[in-house]
Write a structure and sequence with these properties.
about 290 residues, alpha+beta, four-stranded parallel β-sheet, about 30% helix, globular, ATP-dependent diacylglycerol kinase activity, nucleotide-binding, lipid metabolism, transferase, YegS/DAGK_C
């Protein structure tokens, strides 16, 4: 059944989607105000402001915090909502929107009339939470490049960033430690998924579920540029997992390290250089969700 919201806050991140969130703000606030008993409005002009305003809303006791923005804004808001009774709602207005896609919300009406659902989250050794995928290696380099690009918007940005990074492709030493043991290999990339998608809909961990208490880990071992180019089209379908150089497994805790200079990205946001440790925390976040048919 749809939820009844007594006190909600709308957190607008105007820069999301190259200004798309700013253009949507007025209509979003009006629609949301009509569907909740009380609404607070917060406008954040920076990542620091987004995080501070999210914490303020949670401290004010709102039962629903709605973020109008992309995965970066949702990532910041979840830092405040995780482990609390405040429900996170997402009105997607970014370039990737992978978390909104995972919970099924596409508009204000979905948030107002959706259902509460709890999600597992990943908790990093740095103290940060993440909801979708943590990656390192080739894919984090793609993230760095995509975030610096001004054109195009949406998934095509990641496709072009992938092509650009191929020029400097090289494998590097990677050490993966889990509750099952330790593995050392030459790797191209590693992705630790709480949900399947990153990069605007790429199912890098196609079988990942945010309610099973486990990460899905995808590891691509050393491969040539030509082989990787042939494999790239399968990323959009999830069939990359059939390639002999790709291995997947599940674990509750993962530590990534190695002499590789890799940087971890989670929810599309830069985290820290390896080594990084992470663990799954079941039911850490309550979200508004539209159940899949």
């Amino acid at each position: 059944m749809p939820e009844t919201w007594s006190h909600a806050a709308l957190l607008v991140c105007p820069a999301s989607g190259k200004g798309r969130a700013a253009r949507m703000a007025g209509a979003t606030a009006a629609e949301l105000r009509a569907g909740v008993a009380k609404l607070d409005l917060h406008v954040a002009e920076s990542a620091e402001g987004t995080l501070a305003m999210a914490h303020r809303a949670v401290a004010d006791g709102v039962d629903l915090l709605v973020v109008l923005g992309g995965d970066g804004a949702a990532h910041l808001a979840m830092q405040a909502c995780a482990g609390t009774t405040t429900t996170l709602g997402i009105v997607p207005a970014g370039t990737g929107n992978d978390l909104a896609n995972a919970v099924g919300t596409t508009c204000v009406d979905d948030v107002v009339h959706g259902e509460r659902r709890t999600l597992d989250l990943g908790r990093l050794s740095t103290g940060q939470w993440f909801a979708t995928v943590l990656c390192a290696g080739f894919d984090s380099a793609v993230n760095e490049r995509a975030n610096a690009m001004r054109w195009p918007a949406g998934p095509r940005r990641y496709d072009l960033a992938i092509l650009a990074e191929l020029a400097s492709l090289r494998a590097a030493p990677l050490v993966i430690e889990t509750e099952h043991g330790t593995e050392e290999l030459e790797a191209t990339l590693v992705a630790v998924g709480n949900t399947p998608n990153y990069g605007g809909g790429i199912p890098i961990c196609p079988e990942a579920r945010a309610d099973d208490g486990l990460f899905d880990v995808t590891v691509v071992s050393k491969m040539s540029r030509a082989v990787l180019v042939r494999m790239l089209p399968t990323l959009r379908t999830g069939r990359h997992t059939e390639h002999p150089a790709v291995r997947t497994f599940r674990a509750r805790s993962v530590t990534l390290s190695g002499d590789n200079g890799w940087v971890g990205y989670a929810d599309g946001e830069r985290q820290a250089p390896l080594p990084l440790s992470m663990e799954t925390v079941p039911d850490a976040l309550t979200v508004v969700s539209i159940p899949s048919v």
